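Note to self: keep these together.
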Amino acid sequence: MTSSFRHTHRGRHVSICLAAGLALVGLTLVVFCNPAQATSAAVRGGQSVNSPSSSSPASPPAHPSARRPARRAAHSPAVPSRLAVKSKIALVEDANTSEVLLAKNADKVTPIASITKLMTAIVVLDAKLPLEDVLTISNADRDQVMGTTSRLNVGWSLSRVDMLHLALMSSENRAAAALSRYYPGGRPAFIAAMNARAAELGMSNTHFVNPNGLTSENVSTAFDLLKLVQTAYQYPLIREFSTDRNYSVQIGRRILPYVNSNRLVGRPDWDIDVQKTGFINDSGHCVVMRVNADGRTLIMVFLDAIGKLTRFADAQRVRTQLALAQHK
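Structure:
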């Protein structure tokens, strides 16, 4: 009887092992016969990686849609799993196809600092005010919130076009403040126009309280800022001024030279259509750009980066990794 039990048990054991083996073979065949699903899973796992040195991507969740907003679920990133950035918030999209190539916390509402000035420029240009009009810096243009300084002293005057140039290229805060104060109805009307334009563009998670970004209350998301960059690109002066490498203004006998706040501008290996940088403590280091690279046009948004160079390094990382993927 004991011998019969052992024989029966051994037979059941062999049957179970055989069934498990067949199931494993079947799973292997499914994976290798459907490489698109395997690649998609690898890409989704790689998007949560914070460092390009990570050797393996995280396993994808059981329900991938839980990681991305419903309105973006239709987009399927087409980049290798090693595509990763160090900025806490990032979004990269093909400007021509609207294909999202990278999205990292792209729906998170966050302070945007001087990225604000792109909307400031849009509102100024929409008003079609004379660009040659002279504006004078007043005490009302000083930063009373964060106590930052400026090279433009109270009482100094520049044309509206020069103020716009400095605000976009070198992120001159008092220039942006003066532009808003000389708007019909003053600064309150200007800020109302900023928020109205944001609503018109579908920037539903964006809100402005001042024209230069020196506040943690100017907030947006990477998805909203992508719309802002797309709109800013439609304005020739914004394209020209934001990508000018340097510019000097004359005040009396004094010549004030300014340089672009984006260190990628002017480099021969970078073709930038429009850009804007930003920084306050609450926002971290930020940059938004529309760039032409390796035969495609990309909109890049990098927010809340630690360190001045991280946002620019992230742009280079993405560009390099996409180029490698394209040539495979």
